[in-house]
Amino acid sequence: MSTPLTRRQFEQDMGEAARLVEVDRHDRRIMQRALVAALLIHATVLWGRLPNWGPAPVRVERPVQLMQMKFLKPPQAPQPKPAEPEKKKMVRPDPTPDEPEPEVVPEAQPEAPELFGPVRVTSAEGPGLIKKVEPIYPPPARAAHIQGDVVLDAVIQQDGSVAEITVLRSANPMLERAAVEALKHWRFTEGDQDVIMTLTVHFVLQ
Description:
206 residues, alpha+beta
């Protein structure tokens, strides 16, 4: 029984040895290739560092560019033009002195249209007051015991009616509307044109 076991073990040992030899050969090839690559790298580095090895470097010189300077002449100031001599009109003698010269009639210019508009006048110069309407006292102003005057500008038309009323100043804004409404009903004497007058409406508590 011992002989077959010895042969099997021997065959296993031989197979293991053959595998190790094969692996050893593969590793040797790798190591040889790595060694050759390292030698090439070292040789390349030495070739580049040693100054005497390899061809001498060629120095390329750049061409020198020469700058050319041009001096420009300053611009000449424009010379003033000589003044032209004044031409004198020659008076020609009248070939027919006995005949009267025709009269030149100037063209008639159109007259500017007259502008008519209201003229500001005082109460003494303006039309006379023939109808005066007292204002209606605003209830809020009466309740607040507000009184005073409202001064207005008004255009008195030719027929004596009142138009274009403007409030100049007032004792209180609550009195202005009532003053304007009362002034619309005032009447004045007729005139030749529209005039502007300053009128006053009084508000007095009774």
